[in-house]
Amino acid sequence: MKTIICFFALLLTATMLYGQINYSDTSFYSPALDKEKMVRVYLPPAYEKNQELHYPVVYFLHGWGENHTSSSGVLPIFDSLVRTGKINPIIVVIADNSCEPFNGSQYVNSILWGNYEDFMTVDLIAWVDSSFRTIPERNGRSLMGQSMGAYGSFRYGILHKDKYRALAAHAGPVDFFDSIFMATMRTNVLKENQPGPPYFYDYENGGIWTKITFLGSGAWAPNFNSPQKYINPPIVDFPYDENGLSIDTLMPKVRKNNIADLIGQLTPADSVGIFYGCGSQDFVMYHPMNVKFKSTLDNLKLPNEFYDHEGGHSMPVGFMEHGLMFLDSLMLSPGKYDKKN
User: Does residue 303 have a cis bond before it (omega within 30 degrees)?
Assistant: First the structure.
């Protein structure tokens, strides 16, 4: 009985502390998507007191299957770092990237779900800068992402390097062509779609790896006129045929969106700060892929920090803390800012 009482006391305390955090859920119209999208915005303590201060912004990119509310473990950590003076006050923005038909946008433009990359890198920034007292320039923005959001963080940090000073990415698929990653993905997808061959790949009834593969196909190879009669729904070019063999002709489309290839577009002169990490207990192919990716970054002479830990796929508190302090060290500090100039 005492244990139960203690548990509820802790739960109540956590709820009270979380309730003190200054955040709100709202929506705005996105021209890129032609619809309203939800956004959660965290404002630092005393935001309302000094109307002259403008703040740097961290855009948090959530993972697959999540949405703008996926911050129950994130915002308390961020708020604590601000309140204890470990980082400067910041604004945190989490935009909803959940969408049909595969429950995620992969943070890219696709004919299947709309122009989410434009939503994130154009519409969202414009709305945030016009609605809050931000530092509306590259040195006042950074990215932090988990899993699918880690991919988005790397993608935006590379392809939109003029808009973000740094990124912190956890448990991201940084190299689709890593041999362990490719073999494990194929093996898992085929296991989920027995009996076969011939195989029939069904998103609705498939397992997690089948669903993730559909998501990737929707991002890299959407096709409303797919000739593949062995997939459901037939709106993508799936990377495996009915015999379970990889379709090599689709690989160039994937290559164009592969972080390990895109990263070559960055140079040290671009000054994009990179902090990333992965747990040794993550999915079998994720950790070695991320460890090897450090060599790629080092060979390109891109300054980076790798946060190696013993956890799984979820973002640990240690990564949140170290990642946010890393971003804070590179962004401008809060101060007066004349948006007219």
Answer: no
Rounded to whole angstroms, the Cα distance separating 257 from 219 reads 9
Q: What pTM value is reported for the model? A: 0.93
Q: What is the mean pLDDT of residues 95-103?
A: 98
Calculate the alpha carbon distances from 172 to 77, 104, 150, 203 in Å: 21, 15, 5, 22
Per the CB < 8 A criterion, the answer to whether 330 and 88 are in contact is no
Distance CA 327, CA 276 (A): 11
What CA–CA distance (Å, rounded) separates 154 from 172? 9
Mean pLDDT, the chain, integer: 93
Residue 340's pLDDT is what? 60
Domains annotated on the chain, with CATH: 21-175+259-336 (3.40.50.1820), 179-255 (no CATH)
Rounded to whole angstroms, how far apart are CA atoms 94 and 106?
Answer: 15
Give the pLDDT confidence of 144-187 residue by residue, as tens digits. 999 999 999 999 999 999 999 999 999 999 999 999 999 999 99
CB atoms within 10 A of CB 131: 12
Q: What is the dihedral of CA 333, 335, 339, 341, to 10 degrees?
A: -90
- The Cα–Cα gap between 40 and 61 comes to 11
pLDDT digits (tens, 9 = 90+) for 33-57: 999 999 999 999 999 999 999 999 9
> 241-262 b/e with 16+ CB inside 10 Å = b?
ebebeeeeebbeebeebbbbbb
Amino acid making up residue 113 = W
One-letter amino acid of 295 = S
CA distance 57 to 328: 10
